[in-house]
Design a protein that fits this description.
Number of domains: 2
Distance between the termini: 56 Å
Structural class: alpha+beta
Oligomer: single chain
Strand order of the largest sheet: 3-4-5-7-6
Number of strands: 7
Order of helices and strands: HHHHHHEEEEEEE
Mean pLDDT: 81
Keywords: Membrane, Transmembrane, Transmembrane helix
Shape: elongated
Strand content: 15-25%
Largest sheet: 5 strands, antiparallel
C-alpha cells in the first residue's frame, strides 16, 4: 500500500511541476498559485478543523507505517525481486531532477519567453493595425493573441502599448499583469499610477506588473 502511495505522490509532484511550467507562461499567474497554496496551509495551521485534519492525517501515516512493519514477512526464497524498490529509487531521482529543472526554468522565465515568442507574430500584427488597436482600447474587446487573451489595453503618451492579460494576486496584493511594447518608464494611468515593474521578454517586448492604486 505504501509503495503505491509513494508512486502516486511522486508522479503527482511531476505533474504539478508540468502545471507550474504552463502557468508560468502567463504573467502574474504564479501569484495565484502561491496564494492557492498559502491560504489552505494557513487555514490548516490556524483553525480547529484544520488542526484536526492534520492530526488525523499524521495519525493515519503512523498507523499505516506500523501496520506495514508488523506484517509477517514471507520466507526469503519467496521474496519478490528488488525491482519495485529500484523503480521507486529511480522515480525519486527523476522527481528531484524535475523539481530542479522546473525551478531553474521558472527562474530564468524560459517558459514565458518561448510561449510569447510563439505568440509574437499575432502581437506584432495586432499593434501594427492602428485602427484595430484603437478600437480595442475604446470598446474593451478581448482578442485572442496566440495563447493569450487580452483583457484590456492602453496607449501611453510616448507610444508604449500595454496589453493586459489578467489581474492576479489576493486582496491588496492584486495587480494588473500583461505585456507592453516599448514601455513608458512612468507607466500607464489606465492600470494604476504608483508602481510599475518591467521585465524583458523579447526585444522591445516586456511583461509588466502594475499596482492597483489609482
Amino acid at each position: 500500500m505504501m509503495y503505491y502511495f509513494w508512486i502516486v505522490l511522486f508522479l503527482g509532484v511531476q505533474l504539478f511541476c508540468l502545471g507550474l511550467l504552463w502557468v508560468s507562461c502567463f504573467p502574474g499567474a504564479l501569484t495565484d498559485v502561491e496564494w492557492s497554496l498559502i491560504l489552505p496551509l494557513y487555514w490548516l495551521l490556524t483553525t480547529p478543523l484544520g488542526i484536526l485534519i492534520l492530526l488525523l492525517a499524521f495519525g493515519f501515516v503512523i498507523w499505516s507505517r506500523r501496520r506495514w512493519n508488523s506484517q509477517i514477512r514471507p520466507p526469503a526464497e519467496s521474496l519478490p525481486k528488488r525491482q519495485p524498490r529500484r523503480f521507486l529509487k529511480q522515480l525519486v531521482v527523476v522527481t528531484c531532477l524535475v523539481l530542479f529543472l522546473t525551478s531553474i526554468l521558472i527562474r530564468i522565465n524560459l517558459p514565458q519567453t518561448i510561449a510569447f515568442s510563439l505568440s509574437r507574430p499575432a502581437f506584432d500584427a495586432f499593434i501594427a493595425d492602428e485602427a484595430k488597436l484603437v478600437k480595442l482600447c475604446r470598446d474593451l474587446l478581448k482578442p485572442q493573441l496566440g495563447i493569450y487573451r487580452i483583457k484590456d489595453c492602453d496607449i501611453d503618451s510616448q507610444g508604449g502599448i500595454y496589453l493586459q492579460t489578467g489581474w492576479h494576486g489576493f486582496l491588496f496584493n492584486s495587480a494588473a499583469y500583461g505585456f507592453v511594447h516599448r514601455p513608458n518608464p512612468h507607466g500607464s494611468e489606465r492600470f494604476g499610477k504608483d508602481i510599475y515593474e518591467y521585465h524583458p521578454v523579447v526585444e522591445d517586448w516586456y511583461w509588466f506588473r502594475a499596482s492597483q492604486d489609482w
